[in-house]
Amino acid sequence: MTGETERYTPGHDTSAIDFMAARTAATHARFFLPHLAPGMTLLDVGCGPGTITADLAAAVAPGHVLGLDRQASQLVDARALARHRGLTDIEFREGSCYDIPLDDRSVDRVFSHALIEHLAHPVRALAEIRRVLRPGGTVGLCSPDWGGFLLAPPCDDAISAYTRLQQANGGDPFVGRKLGRYLLEAGFEQYHLDAHYERHADPSRIADYLAVQLDTAGQTTHARRLRNWAADPNSMFAQAWVTAVATRPR
């Protein structure tokens, strides 16, 4: 991910990377697994620490998988994970979703999780994804929509502070509901949308993940409010996700 007006809101400190590394294909790419088959080539755009990428590589083996991310430090962890799991048909490259280092019509599948919401130019990125997909190839996207989050007890001020922060950084916390329109604007002709909730079993983890970002932005009052909220034994955080699957026309 890169762009003149973008800043990646979660950052790349240890807490953010650990939070992302807990995600797997089973938890965050299940919707896309039925679209995969052995021998396919797959690109994971915004792959982060590679935990989902590694699972996708197992699903398409012996096909080839490329994980792409703009943050080199995350790719160090991703490569180490691939070596630990004995995955040989997987590679990780530093690069931008706006300028993917692949030829036209060169991959069967593209996956992207928790990326589009951070982009100032989502349609431009989706058009680049369409460029590298083979005709008939499929893309799977998964992004949150903060307009559908469920928190109990309410913590509206702190959550609103976070959504404003993401917007100030060039992202869109409400992008989930817009994925279908953006896919059409990028040249895809058909798409399927779905939505689901992810309930965080330990609300303190998501609260701290968000609070660190607010602290970094100097919004310590809202960060403290989130941490105090998570200390309530009755707290609940359910995150709304929108998934989209679209195919490049033949």
Automatic annotation (TrEMBL):
Residues 43-139 form the Methyltransferase type domain. It comes from the Bacteria. InterPro entries: Erg6_SMT_methyltransf, Methyltransf_11, SAM-dependent_MTases_sf. SUPFAM superfamilies: S-adenosyl-L-methionine-dependent methyltransferases. Keywords: Methyltransferase, Transferase. CDD domains: AdoMet_MTases (cd02440). GO terms for molecular function: sterol 24-C-methyltransferase activity. The lineage of its organism: Bacteria, Bacillati, Actinomycetota, Actinomycetes, Streptosporangiales. One of its GO terms (biological process) is sterol biosynthetic process. This is Methyltransferase domain-containing protein.
